[in-house]
Design brief:
28 helices; alpha+beta; 63% helix; 10% strand; 699 residues; 4-stranded antiparallel sheet; Multidrug efflux transporter AcrB transmembrane fold
């Protein structure tokens, strides 16, 4: 080995170490299936779906502790929360943990809403006007008299002089209903409808798809419950629901698959190399292009996309089969032909076919980089960087490391002899050469027409049935609203988005009346847009007859004269600024509203949750002419993405095949040799699809 070769090896080693350190420090795996959603057609919906997958909504876990009775559930809930907060793995990873309403929530909300009560006289302008008509005033007087005779009479008597319409108590009732579940609050803890299941809500700081960050948190939750159950003295059962559990399980399963495939492949390859070359050095050298390819591919994806998808990582394990071909070709030529110039002469002799093979492989994968699917572009990035690195490692480094003397191995000699005899026999019976491709062609022609597409994108991710069953138990007890269908109101800023959200709420109310939908959970009743807040407040302040009519109607109902002078006086007070989302978020009610908001770049969105969708097409039609309103159906979006994935993959593979054909034509400059080089790979692909079809697998 001369000085130039040593320098080349040193430089290559330093580059490899730098890439390896980068991969280790920045290694992140995601199983987010939304990375296989298209960026083109329906790109806005796809981007919105990806944003929701990263939002606080998907970062929220539901923990349900089932006990023997209500009091046991309450005690277990408090003990579990205390243990979770005491565990550093949990405490450092969560943004919130709520086992019951935040202390002081009613007072904080009163302070927010009371100065703005005129803005909440009705759900919309029509309702507000109706409440201020004489009939509406009579109804309000009757409701007030009834409330003064009820269990909350002391509270009502305090707020009524400034709020005869009981706007604030009504808002508190709306807030209670906005929990979107069958939960009750008993002794300050959330209790499910069965009366013996306590519920806690936990939000994570990291993305639900970040398996590395989620694994310690999930372990901390399990350990905290195990310790609680051990000391509790009565049976307890913990059920959990959260996107992070599925993502972590999938990442763990993928890593196990990668390790298994890599281990089996490595053992088989090492065994064959030892049998044929009887040299541990040869085995070690063969791993250089493989490892270099996997590390370079991982580094390229992390640098471009920020994280590795599990499917890409699993694909990386299969890169071993491609990368090892370059080494095997070099080893075989060197050990069988034994050129006088040593390994470097062998490389020179086979460099053109090696380069042709690498170029055609790169061309096929490079075509995928033009896909509208982020996931396919990620696979293309990994493959191109990995294969190029494996090829360059073979060409630049291996000839310098292969030993100059090679021992004769009987097993290798016998194998070479058998192969030579087989080729001689085939050359003597050239017509027999068509038998194998002919049989393959027959199978492909018979079976391939029956191949079917699999339109279910979720099939790319396996799910643990036990996790699914546990998640279903939690959702049945806690959440009444759908997880895969909702409406999003988008705007250029918060005010615009809230105004759009008000229009969405009205359209969905029409859908409920038409029987297309059972119910909705919208932020609009608690936080209308600033336009609506101002408009409703002006209705009350702009009616000069209201003070006199209110005194007369409420006096006829038996209320003392002057009882509501504070309300009448407030009509002349300056209007406060409209209530904003951040006002609610910073208040003790933040936990009830934080899941409504999402951001899409510089745009803001508010989600409306749906329950009992009976006619999705009709709901979508109601929203069609409303700018910024999107009826997001995740399952339909995923199915559409799968069809786009299939269409674009076939199209790009076709372009890739043309690129390969062009490279082969440039290499051989003869149609017959070009086709002979291409047909076997095409037949192999067709035969693979045929085998999958016979096995009942969709594509």
């Amino acid at each position: 080995m001369n000085m130039a070769e040593r320098r080349r090896l040193l430089a290559g080693g330093l580059v490899f170490l730098a890439l390896l350190v980068y991969v280790i420090l920045d290694f992140r795996v995601t199983t987010d299936i939304s990375r296989f959603l298209p960026d083109g057609e329906d790109g806005a919906l796809s981007a919105l779906s990806r944003e929701i997958a990263e939002s606080e909504l998907s970062r929220t876990m539901i923990l349900a502790i089932e006990a023997e009775d209500t009091q046991s559930a309450i005690r277990a809930s408090r003990g579990f929360e205390n243990r979770l907060r005491a565990d550093p793995r949990v405490a450092s990873a969560i943004s919130f943990l709520e086992g019951g309403p935040t202390e002081g929530i009613e007072r904080a909300l009163f302070e927010l809403y009371e100065p703005r009560r005129l803005s909440f006289l009705g759900g919309n302008e029509s309702e507000a006007r109706a409440r201020l008509e004489d009939d509406g005033l009579r109804a309000a007087a009757g409701e007030l008299k009834e409330a003064l005779g009820g269990p909350l009479s002391m509270l009502v008597s305090r707020v009524a002089p400034r709020d005869p319409f009981l706007t604030i108590p009504s808002l508190l009732e709306r807030l209670e209903r906005s929990r979107a579940s069958d939960l009750r609050v008993i002794d300050g803890r959330f209790i499910a409808a069965d009366g013996r299941t306590a519920v806690l809500f936990l939000g994570t700081r990291a993305s639900a798809m970040d398996a590395r960050a989620q694994a310690p948190l999930l372990a901390g939750i399990d350990d905290a419950f195990e310790a609680l159950a051990k000391d509790f003295g009565a049976p307890l059962r913990l059920d959990q629901s959260g996107v992070n559990r599925f993502a972590t399980w999938a990442a763990t399963a993928i890593e196990a698959d990668v390790k298994r495939v890599g281990l089996v492949s490595s053992v088989v390859l090492c065994t064959l190399l030892l049998l044929l070359f009887r040299s541990l050095r040869f085995v070690g050298l063969a791993s250089i292009p493989v490892v270099a390819g996997v590390v370079a591919g991982s580094a390229a994806v992390l640098a471009v996309f920020g994280r590795l998808h599990g499917i890409t990582l699993a694909f990386g394990a299969s890169l071993i089969g491609v990368s090892i071909d370059y080494v095997v070709h070099l080893y075989c030529h060197y050990t069988i032909v034994r050129p006088e110039g040593g390994p470097r002469a062998s490389l020179h002799a086979i460099l053109r076919p090696l380069a042709t093979g690498a170029a055609t492989t790169l061309a096929g994968f490079a075509a995928l980089s033009f896909s509208s699917l982020v996931g396919l572009r990620e696979v293309a990035c990994f493959a191109v960087a990995g294969i190029l690195s494996a090829f360059l490692s073979t060409v630049l480094f291996l000839p310098s490391l292969i030993p100059p003397r090679i021992e004769e191995v009987p097993a290798r000699s016998r194998l070479v002899g058998w192969i030579e005899d087989a080729f001689s026999a085939l050359l003597a019976h050239r017509r027999a050469l068509v038998v194998i491709p002919g049989l393959a062609m027959a199978v492909v022609l018979c079976v391939l027409p029956g191949a079917r597409w699999n339109s279910d994108l979720s099939s790319l991710n396996r799910m643990d049935p036990e996790l699914l069953a546990e998640d279903e138990r939690v959702q049945t007890k806690v959440a009444r609203f759908e997880q895969m269908r909702f409406v999003v109101a988008l705007g250029d800023d918060e005010a615009h988005a809230l105004d759009t959200n008000d229009l969405v709420e009205a359209r969905l109310h029409e859908a409920i009346e038409a029987g297309e939908l059972t119910t909705q959970r919208s932020l609009s009743p608690l936080l209308p847009g600033p336009r609506r807040q101002r408009a409703i407040a002006r209705i009350a302040r702009g009616d000069p007859s209201l003070p006199e009519r209110l005194r007369r109607v409420f006096g006829e109902a038996g209320f003392a004269a002057g009882a509501f002078d504070p309300f009448i006086a407030s009509l002349e007070e300056p209007l406060p600024e409209p209530l904003r989302f951040d006002d609610l978020l910073r208040s003790p009610a933040g936990g009830l509203v934080r899941s409504f908001r999402v951001e899409l770049g510089e745009r803001v969105g508010f989600i409306t949750f749906l329950h009992g969708v009976r006619d999705a097409a009709a709901i979508e039609a109601r929203l069609a002419d409303l700018p910024g309103a999107f009826f997001l159906r995740q399952s339909d979006l995923f199915d559409s993405a799968q069809r786009e994935y299939q269409r674009s993959t076939v199209e790009l593979l076709g372009w890739g095949l043309l690129a390969v054909l062009g490279l082969l034509a440039l290499r051989y400059r003869e149609p017959r040799r070009t086709l002979v080089s291409l047909v076997p790979s095409v037949l192999a692909a067709g035969l693979t699809v045929s085998i999958l079809t016979l096995a009942g697998r969709g594509l």
